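Entry 14. Structure prediction run on the chain below.
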Amino acid sequence: MDLRVAAYAVVVDDDGRVLLAHWNEGRRAAWTMPGGGIEAGEDPAHTARREVFEETGYHVEIQDLLGIHSRVIPEAHRIPEPAGGPLHTIRIVYRARVTGGRLRHEVDGSTDRAEWFPLEAVDGLRHVKLVDIALAMAGLRNPETPG
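Output returned:
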């Protein structure tokens, strides 16, 4: 079984919009929380700051640890294919706020654009389950809200 540990940030602006990144790997492109894999020896909070900058162009300050989500993905559901067995993914989720930078899109990465969305618009977007999980951790939606 493979293991992937990643860190993500829930970033909401003064207008109540959430920052999302458009993930484009595999067979199903969808919106996700900005974030990604922790490099060997890297602090998870640093990972979240680095990944938000890489995917969106914004510098952020990490505010709170919102939670940790663990999931085992069966081999048949892993993206991208082919996979060498199931994947255990551990996602560390922080709350963060923008301190600088400007919105821009990642080039040659696992995401291809970033955008701000009103919270009420998220349900209408094609998005990964992590968005619902992270927003619930941040108290921005009910954990049972479908996504």
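The chain has two helices and seven strands.
Filed with the rest of this week's runs.
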